[in-house]
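Observation: inputs received (chain + S-adenosyl-L-homocysteine).
Thought: call the complex predictor directly.
Action: predict_structure
Action Input:
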Amino acid sequence: MAELTPINSLRLEELEARLVELGEPKYKALQVFKWLSLGVESFDEMTDVSKALRAKLAEQFYIERLTIVTKQSSMLDGTVKYLFGLRDGNSIETVLMKYKHGYSVCISTQAGCKMGCIFCASFEKGATRNLTAGEILLQVIMAQKDSGNRISNIVLMGTGEPLDNYDNVMAFLDLVSHEKGVNIGMRHISLSTCGLVPRIYDLAQLKKQLTLSISLHAPNNEIRSKIMPVNNKYDIHSLLKACRHYFDVTGRRISFEYAMIRGVNDTRDCAYELARLLKGFNCHVNLIPLNHIEGSPLKPSTREDQAAFQKILESYHITTTVRRQHLGADIDASCGQLRRRIQNQEAKQ
Ligand code: SAH
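Observation:
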């Protein structure tokens, strides 16, 4: 028997083509697509689709599904963190956050990550795999369904490097922004990357209106290569060149993420160097207090160092914000920590 296709990963046009191949009228694809956007778990839930077609679909496709393994709710700020189980036993994290202007969800694009940034809990040796477009999409749908809240913003800042799973992430963006589907516009989506330069050029070509965030974390190659191995492949100057190109082509202002690590990248010299590097570039810098990871020697910067760093950037007219203490601090709600803790527990058992 031919291998089944995960139906949630198909764009509407792809689904239409598949149904036409099966001898069905094209319009039926839209009915199916709408059901999938609501997070149905079986073809039988598609009550306005004929039984015959449901049976036909089940012969060709399977519906991707995420199960809630654990769910933690923050007592501090209403953040909810999900650990979702996948078909193959892998698990991924998704975080739902409440802001003044609505709900935002932080989603994973891979199970594990192979980029190796030394400050990040997501990196682990061994197998990692790309998530399908459907698995990425279902994180949004499940968070929406489980919480009963309409999600207005998405950040691709969970586990994984989105541009290392380029095709599936692009399919996800088309799916989630489709007006007949989940319908979250590109302007409400941020994609964060550690800097896979060729893929930044590819993305620019698509001229999507999403916000590109770059995990910069250092003002020069020496420091960046020490903390982010990807910099050995694509150095900081080639990265910034790609960013300038991205801005020129899309007109979208880039956001630079900078996790402040005590004594590593947070000195005044670093601030001046960063300011010179970004001077004149229409961008935004987001300073993030490092989130301490159990067992790591790296520590967050002091408030004073953070404030001094920000002041220097601002004196160069670089728009800078300091991210508020991260949401869900009481539930390990960031950077792969829940997944890691559960895996460590399993390893100990
Ligand atoms: N791979 C992508 C997206 C996932 S990481 C990327 O690198 O951008 C999301 C963000 O969290 C990145 O900016 C990452 O550098 C940052 N991050 C990872 N570990 C962190 C930590 N311990 N403290 C603060 N930020 C961290």
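Thought: report the result.
Final Answer: Residues 115, 117, 119-120, 157, 161, 192-194, 215, 257, 259, 288, 290-291, 293, 335 surround S-adenosyl-L-homocysteine (CB under 6 Å). The longest strand covers residues 91-99.
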